[in-house]
C-alpha cells in the first residue's frame, strides 16, 4: 500500500511539473490598437491594409489589457528607425503603461506620410517586464539599423515560438493576444502601412 502511495505521489509530481513546463497557467498578454487618419475635417478609423497618400496625417491609439511595458518603433522606407513610444515628453520617457490606459501616439498632433512613397513599418512591442534591448534603443545606446534590425527579428521570433499568438481585425480596431508560459514573454506585432504619392488630377 505504501509503495502504491509513493508511486502515486511521484506520478502527481511528474504531471504537475509537465503542466508547468508546457504552459498551463500561462500568462495572457493582450492589447487593442486603432489607426486614425484625418480626412476632410473628420477623424476616421481605417484598416492597415488601406493604401495611404503622401501628406495624409494619422495617429495610433493603443490600449493594453495588462500592466506592462510598451515600445513602438517605426522603420521607414529607407530602413531607418525612429522611436515613437516612449518619448521623453510623456511620463519622463518611461515605457510602463497601466492596464486599460489609452496611449495616443504621438501624444500631441499627428504623424504625416512624407513624399517618399513606400512601406512604413510600425513595430509594437508589449511585455509584462521591461525589455533590456529595447530600453537601450530608447536611451539611444543603439541607433544603427544594422544593430536594431536583428534585435527586433529575434524578439518577434521569440514571441511566436514561445507562445500562442493571435491577431484579429475588428471593424474599428485590431486585437492582438499572446499566451505564453514565460513570465518575461514579449508580444511583438508588426503593422505595415503603404503610402503612395499624392494623386493629382
How many structural domains can be distinguished in the coordinates? Answer: 1
Strand residues, percent: 35-45%
Judging from the principal axes of the Cα atoms, what is the shape?
globular
Let me know the average pLDDT: 84
Broad structural category: alpha+beta
Overview of this structure, please?
The chain is α+β, with helices and mostly antiparallel strands. It has one domain. It has 3 helices and 13 strands. The strands form 2 sheets. Strands 1, 2, 4, 8, 9, 11 and 12 form a 7-stranded antiparallel beta sheet that branches. Strands 3, 5, 6, 7, 10 and 13 form a 6-stranded mixed beta sheet that branches. A hairpin with a 2-residue loop joins strand 1 and strand 2. It is globular, with a radius of gyration of 21 Å. It starts with a helix and ends in a 5-residue tail after the last strand.
SSE topology:
Layout: H1 2-21, E1 27-39, E2 42-46, E3 51-53, E4 57-64, E5 68-75, E6 81-85, E7 96-97, E8 102-105, E9 111-112, E10 118-127, H2 132-138, H3 145-162, E11 164-169, E12 174-180, E13 186-196
Parallel strand pairs: 3-13
Antiparallel strand pairs: 1-2, 1-4, 1-12, 4-8, 4-9, 5-6, 5-7, 5-10, 10-13, 11-12
The gist of it:
By secondary structure, the chain is an alpha+beta fold.
Question: What are the salient characteristics of this protein?
Answer:
201 residues, alpha+beta, seven-stranded antiparallel β-sheet, six-stranded mixed β-sheet, 3 helices, 13 strands, 22% helix, disordered N terminus
Amino acid at each position: 500500500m505504501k509503495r502504491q502511495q509513493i508511486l502515486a505521489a511521484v506520478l502527481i509530481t511528474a504531471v504537475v511539473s509537465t503542466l508547468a513546463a508546457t504552459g498551463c497557467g500561462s500568462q495572457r498578454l493582450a492589447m487593442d490598437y486603432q489607426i486614425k487618419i484625418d480626412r476632410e475635417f473628420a477623424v476616421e478609423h481605417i484598416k492597415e491594409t488601406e493604401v495611404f497618400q503622401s501628406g495624409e496625417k494619422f495617429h495610433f491609439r493603443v490600449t493594453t489589457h495588462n500592466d506592462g511595458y510598451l515600445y513602438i518603433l517605426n522603420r521607414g522606407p529607407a530602413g531607418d528607425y525612429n522611436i515613437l513610444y516612449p518619448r521623453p515628453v510623456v511620463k519622463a520617457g518611461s515605457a510602463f503603461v497601466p492596464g486599460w490606459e489609452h496611449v495616443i501616439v504621438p501624444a500631441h498632433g499627428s504623424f504625416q506620410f512624407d513624399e517618399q512613397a513606400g512601406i512604413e513599418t510600425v513595430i509594437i512591442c508589449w511585455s509584462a517586464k521591461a525589455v533590456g534591448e529595447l530600453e537601450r534603443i530608447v536611451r539611444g545606446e543603439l541607433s544603427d539599423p544594422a544593430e536594431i534590425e536583428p534585435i527586433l527579428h529575434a524578439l518577434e521570433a521569440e514571441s511566436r515560438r514561445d507562445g500562442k499568438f493571435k491577431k484579429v481585425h475588428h471593424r474599428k480596431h485590431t486585437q492582438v493576444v499572446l499566451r505564453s508560459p514565460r513570465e518575461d514573454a514579449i508580444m511583438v506585432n508588426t503593422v505595415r502601412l503603404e503610402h503612395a504619392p499624392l494623386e493629382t488630377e
